[in-house]
Amino acid sequence: MTPAPMSDAHRHFLQALLALGVVEGSAAGALQRQCCELHRVYYAHDKLDDFINVANAQLQPLLMEVRKGLSEENGGTYYALVNLAETEFTKMASDYSESELELFKKTMDLIVSSGSGFASSTDILNLADQLKPKKMKKKEAEQVLRSLVQNKWLCEQEGEYTLHIRCILELEQYILCHYQGSVHKCHVCHCLCIQSQVCKDCGIAMHLPCLAKYFGAQAEPRCPHCKQLWPRWMLDTSTAGLRLPSHTPKESRRTPTSTRQR
Ligand SMILES: [Zn+2]
Ligand SMILES: [Zn+2]
């Protein structure tokens, strides 16, 4: 079957997505509506994924794709236009110098190896004078971090950094290859997991929002793979009063038994 042709509404939608980098689910729906109304194209409010599939069929030969992902913090849906032809960090090279990219890569190393998905600004800024080809002053490194947050590569909360969903969507392949063995895919949604809890018995990982959704429907929190009890989850919910199924990023991060090893 030949794919349905793209309309001007699709083109407009893709241009906006390209400019924005990443768009939250309801904003993507609003954008679809605007584009359809502007170009007088039939609009169905609950058919965003179908609308995107039409675009994706046309984008495939160009090695591009609109990808949908869930925020690791709150489980919200996000969309990003991903270039599958560009490898690793080529897509960032126009915005950042070699040393700045080096800082970003080292920050990713810290985040991925933390076991919790977070790196502190102190730890990141301590890397500034080891960067190649050019060292950075802490002030400069702070500015680079600010720009990485602004461009939605990193998220920051109270001095702790993690990967933005945009970064995960765009660099998923790189992260999976480069950190083979130390990163997991979520057992529930099958997407790459940076902030996760891991089963101590069988080693499967789940995102915090996926875990909340999964265990919210169970009488007893048991691992979906090995069926052993998931004690950390019980502790988290009983001590922190975590609300199911959704909780704010702060709650999920500040639980006393969180996976962060400090
Ligand atoms: Zn998940
Ligand atoms: Zn297990």
UniProtKB/TrEMBL annotation:
Top enzyme class: transferase
Major place of residence: nucleus
Disordered, as annotated region: 241-262
GO process terms (BP): double-strand break repair via homologous recombination
UniProt signal peptide: 1-28
Catalysis performed (reactions): S-ubiquitinyl-[E2 ubiquitin-conjugating enzyme]-L-cysteine + [acceptor protein]-L-lysine = [E2 ubiquitin-conjugating enzyme]-L-cysteine + N(6)-ubiquitinyl-[acceptor protein]-L-lysine
CC per GO annotation: chromosome, telomeric region; nucleus; Smc5-Smc6 complex
UniProt-listed Enzyme Commission number(s): 2.3.2.27
Subcellular location: Chromosome, Telomere; Nucleus
Keyword Zinc: yes
Entry keyword Cell inner membrane: no
Location of the RING-type domain: 186-227
Pfam families, sorted: SMC_Nse1, zf-RING-like
Alphabetical list of InterPro entries matching this protein: Nse1 (IPR011513), Nse1_RING_C4HC3-type (IPR014857), WH-like_DNA-bd_sf (IPR036388), Znf_RING (IPR001841), Znf_RING/FYVE/PHD (IPR013083)
GO molecular function per UniProt: ubiquitin protein ligase activity; zinc ion binding
Keywords annotated in UniProt: Chromosome, DNA damage, DNA recombination, DNA repair, Metal-binding, Nucleus, Signal, Telomere, Transferase, Ubl conjugation pathway, Zinc, Zinc-finger
Record field: transmembrane: none
Assembly with partners or alone: Component of the Smc5-Smc6 complex.
Job of this protein: RING-type zinc finger-containing E3 ubiquitin ligase that assembles with melanoma antigen protein (MAGE) to catalyze the direct transfer of ubiquitin from E2 ubiquitin-conjugating enzyme to a specific substrate. Involved in maintenance of genome integrity, DNA damage response and DNA repair.
Family named by the database record: Belongs to the NSE1 family.
Name used for this protein in its record: Non-structural maintenance of chromosomes element 1 homolog
